């Protein structure tokens, strides 16, 4: 039964605080004022407008800037900082001492929202731009032809940090996204463009990328006095080489009109800009020679204003003309204003200009009617409203087509819906509730002849369980008399499945005649902002990149998925095995997307990564294990936990040998082990039950919690000595009065119960078992010398007077008899267990606990915040502890485990802000382990936390990459 509020006050406050940290708790604001005209127009205060602006958006940088969710008191010993990104130069790999850690290869992953764009002059190639700093060109089949990542772009920009303690770079932010309230936010729907600037017949790509502005990281770059800003960069479409780049103060608008590159710069929004600099629009025509572009002619239109002024829209009008707009933000002393103008791109001369009191958000050409259609919006302190306005192309005469009150515009698109070759106007708008959150979204089609007569509308309401912003159609396009709408989906936005509405989306095709849904895809299946229509010999298709970094292609007519291409996003898991038969270990990695990649091990150590194969799996990767499923004595298969299924792959080729469906459950782990003694590994999958399968996918046995237990979830299992050790708890156990929590030892051959744990908590707790640790919570190894090497570890969650606690329960694996039961850290602090001559070691948040073989226990705390660890072999066979910390890898001498000295000095370290997980293996056969620095399984861990009724979400602003490093003698 669910707890009432009074009974759960202490735990409820902790969980509520986690939600507050995520910005998910309901907030209250004084009501907006109706205007004096009595029209019930919402008029916001400055504070209300600022708050609304902060969340009424699709944020392309949410992967880096998302708000954390952690419980209060997650670990009473966690006094170390979680990582600010501030590091001294010495952190990069050459610490004084006997050894050093030196990066040899970096495999940078993609991050953020992605947009694709066709490459003109090719047979269907496309560019992919990720908001957090990568650009690539691919062939129609998905083969990558070239790729530029942050490291290569920074090298071309020649950025040198000016702060010696902040040398590691953050990802560049390619201008993308849209804010429904304000044109003054650091987002842009015109941050990139394509066109042929070299004259080779193939499109090049130009983009603007913010560097050093957010987070603030000052630098120097040749040819500029700016300490940060936006690099406008042109890449050769054929090769990916940088053709031209220049640092501007705040250029969030770029456009190609013919051969002229237009750049809108708004220096007011860069604190490091020249205080006399005003908003300008620059037009550049280039000459091309020797593999580079050089400005051949340049003109500049000066808006003559600086304060609170930004560029709003650029639109190609034809005949070398461009329509442009800038807006000046309202203050307490001055009214808001905007100007729309028509310029000749040859010399920047102004043909006409027209002023408005509304901010211009978008401009679209309606050539059939000789007008520009403008989406214009009032400052919310003047009233929540927007207009569709018309500007005559001939002379700029402005007229209002339609006015919408108490609604925010998300997008507008023009296209032929009737088949009369004249466009209708399709608008996406959202309304507000009494707390100024978006509560519904409507896509409206209006007749283009008058711009106001509604033809049809489709409304999607906020998810009933959501009290914050609803989803909405943030991206529209019109194709073949139909509307393509890309929606952000707000379902489950307070859970790990869609934390802060950062993962789920809807892609819909609406009939142009009545708005009826032709088809819709919903889930982690599309982008909330971008869907690229393209045509080939099989007709029209839609290309989109979902938030898990899988590029998907859908049939435009049917909505059927036709292709799925995993991109290398965050990588959290790795294993090594000899893939190519050269006698040396290779590296297999996976994580956020549905992809698994195998790299040649020696090539990674040599700094020249060589991809051996890649494979596509049923879902996100939450674990990779080596296995021998065919009984040949070699562990040359891989067992992978893939979110919706477990998969068995041939390690040599990546070929799928078997897919074991998860029956709708979350497959967070899959453990290979020989259960029946036939020399072949089976696969154990814990979800709502523990299921054992043959490697072919045939069920061997199933264990369910005792009758009457209700809905339960099993954590990771351990298999040893003919037994399967498992633990489980009620789903959402922290919200229950009397959750079911227990552990079992099962006979590996048939799943029958050998003994039951029935745990008892230590005296310094409240005595109640609240949950289990689902990730790495069960462990067994011969080196644990309790019970003469017959020991197993279970972990439980209880509480004391202050906070939830993790309890380590060591038992005789043969009988289940408890041998040692001790509290060890807070909620979500368990990293992993490992063993050595010192005994059993628990690596937890900022701590190492050793359960020594002499029966003594030792505990030390670490700085920085440790998360996981293990023993490695260093130069000369030296034993070391390698730990994954918040933002890097640290090495310690094993003597620290029993020295009883907190915060021991490290032997060596390597700073990498995006690192949390680690893997170690000898990849080149020299007898010394390499360290593989990995990212964190943000979604997977959060989902596991959600199964006990909590949440754990820690995004970061770092570049995410797999780094292979050597341990070298100094």
From TrEMBL:
Residues 55-97 are annotated as: Disordered. Residues 1-34 form the signal peptide. Pfam families: FG-GAP_3. InterPro entries: FG-GAP, Integrin_alpha_N, Quinoprotein_ADH-like_sf, TAT_signal. Keywords: Signal. It comes from the Bacteria. This is VCBS repeat-containing protein. It comes from Streptomyces sp. NBC_00119.
């Amino acid at each position: 039964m669910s707890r009432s509020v009074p009974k759960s006050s202490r735990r409820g406050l902790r969980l509520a605080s986690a939600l507050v940290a995520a910005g998910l708790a309901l907030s209250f604001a004084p009501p907006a004022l109706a205007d004096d005209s009595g029209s019930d127009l919402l008029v916001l205060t400055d504070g209300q407008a600022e708050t609304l602006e902060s969340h009424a958006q699709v944020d392309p940088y949410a992967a880096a800037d998302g708000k954390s969710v952690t419980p209060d008191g997650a670990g009473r010993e966690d006094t170390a900082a979680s990582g600010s990104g501030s590091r001294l130069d010495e952190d990069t790999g050459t610490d004084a001492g006997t050894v050093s850690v030196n990066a040899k290869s970096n495999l940078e992953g993609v991050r953020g929202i992605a947009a694709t764009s066709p490459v003109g002059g090719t047979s269907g190639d496309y560019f992919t731009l990720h908001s957090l700093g990568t650009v690539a060109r691919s062939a129609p089949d998905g083969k990558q032809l070239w790729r530029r990542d942050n490291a290569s772009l920074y090298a071309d920009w020649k950025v040198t940090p000016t702060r010696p303690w902040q040398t590691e770079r953050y990802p560049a932010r390619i201008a993308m996204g849209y804010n429904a309230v304000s044109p003054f936010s650091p987002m842009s729907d015109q941050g990139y463009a394509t066109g042929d600037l070299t004259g080779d017949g193939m499109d090049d790509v130009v983009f603007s990328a913010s560097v050093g502005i957010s987070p603030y990281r000052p630098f120097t770059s040749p040819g500029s006095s700016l300490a940060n800003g936006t690099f406008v960069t042109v890449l050769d479409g054929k090769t990916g080489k940088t053709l031209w780049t220049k640092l501007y103060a705040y250029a969030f608008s770029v456009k190609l009109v013919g051969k002229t590159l237009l750049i809108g710069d708004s220096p007011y929004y860069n604190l490091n800009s020249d205080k006399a600099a005003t908003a300008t629009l620059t037009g550049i025509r280039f000459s091309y020679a020797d593999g580079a572009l050089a400005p051949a002619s340049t003109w500049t239109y000066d808006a003559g204003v600086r304060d609170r002024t930004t560029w709003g829209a650029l639109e190609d009008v034809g005949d070398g003309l461009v329509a442009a707009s800038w807006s000046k933000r309202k203050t307490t002393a001055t009214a808001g204003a905007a100007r729309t103008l028509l310029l000749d791109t040859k010399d920047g001369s102004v043909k006409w200009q027209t002023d408005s009191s509304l901010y211009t958000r978008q401009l679209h050409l309606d050539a059939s009617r000789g007008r520009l259609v403008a989406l214009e919006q009032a400052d919310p302190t003047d009233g929540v409203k927007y207009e569709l306005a018309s500007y005559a192309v001939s002379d700029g005469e402005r007229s209002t087509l339609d006015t919408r009150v108490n609604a925010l515009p998300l997008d507008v698109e023009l296209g032929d819906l009737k088949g009369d070759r004249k466009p209708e106007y399709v608008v996406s708008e959202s309304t507000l509730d009494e707390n100024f959150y978006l509560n519904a979204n409507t896509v409206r089609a209006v007749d283009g002849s008058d711009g106001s007569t509604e033809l049809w509308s489709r409304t999607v309401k906020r998810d009933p369980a959501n009290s914050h912003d609803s989803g909405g159609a943030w991206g529209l396009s019109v194709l073949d008399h139909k509307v393509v709408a890309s929606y952000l989906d707000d379902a489950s936005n307070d859970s790990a499945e869609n934390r802060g509405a950062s993962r789920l989306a809807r892609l819909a095709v609406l009939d142009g005649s009545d708005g009826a849904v032709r088809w819709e895809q919903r889930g982690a299946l599309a982008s909330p902002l971008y869907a690229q229509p393209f045509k080939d010999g099989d007709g029209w298709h839609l290309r989109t990149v979902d938030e898990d970094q899988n590029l998907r292609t859908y049939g435009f007519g049917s909505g059927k998925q036709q292709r799925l291409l995993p991109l290398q996003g965050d990588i959290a898991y790795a294993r090594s095995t000899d893939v190519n038969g050269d006698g040396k270990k290779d590296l297999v990695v996976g994580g956020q997307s549905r992809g698994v990649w195998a790299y040649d091990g020696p090539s990674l150590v040599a700094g020249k990564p060589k991809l051996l194969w890649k494979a596509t799996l049923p879902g996100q990767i939450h674990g990779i294990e080596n296995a021998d499923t065919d009984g040949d004595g070699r562990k040359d298969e891989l067992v992978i936990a893939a979110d919706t299924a477990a998969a068995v792959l041939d390690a040599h080729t990546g070929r799928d040998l078997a897919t074991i469906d998860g029956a709708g459950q979350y497959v967070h782990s899959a453990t290979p082990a020989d259960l029946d003694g036939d020399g072949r590994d089976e696969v154990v999958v814990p979800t709502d039950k523990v299921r054992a399968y043959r490697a072919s996918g045939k069920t061997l046995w199933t264990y369910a919690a005792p009758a009457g237990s209700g809905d339960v979830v099993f954590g990771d299992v351990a298999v040893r000595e003919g037994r399967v050790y498992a633990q489980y708890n009620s789903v959402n156990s922290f919200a229950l009065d009397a959750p079911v929590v227990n552990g079992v030892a099962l006979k590996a051959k048939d799943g029958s119960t050998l003994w039951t744990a029935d745990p008892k908590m230590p005296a310094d707790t409240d005595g109640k078992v609240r949950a289990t640790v689902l990730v790495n919570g069960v462990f067994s190894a011969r080196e644990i010398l309790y019970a003469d090497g017959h020991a197993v570890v279970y972990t439980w969650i209880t509480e004391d007077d202050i906070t939830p606690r993790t309890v380590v329960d060591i038992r005789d694996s043969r009988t289940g008899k408890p041998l040692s039961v001790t509290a060890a850290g807070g909620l979500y602090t368990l990293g992993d267990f490992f063993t050595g001559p010192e005994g059993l070691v628990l690596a937890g948040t900022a701590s190492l606990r050793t359960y020594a073989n002499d029966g003594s226990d030792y505990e030390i705390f670490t700085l920085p915040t440790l998360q996981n660890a293990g023993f490695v072999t260093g130069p000369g066979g030296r034993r070391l502890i390698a730990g994954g910390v918040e933002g890097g890898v640290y090495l310690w001498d094993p003597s620290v485990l029993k020295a009883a000295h907190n915060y021991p000095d490290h032997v060596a370290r390597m700073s990498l802000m995006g690192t949390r997980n680690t893997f170690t293996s000898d990849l080149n056969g020299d007898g010394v382990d390499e360290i593989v620095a990995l990212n964190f399984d943000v979604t997977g861990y959060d989902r596991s936390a959600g199964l006990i009724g909590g949440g754990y979400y820690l995004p970061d602003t770092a570049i995410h990459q797999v780094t292979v490093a050597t341990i070298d003698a100094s």
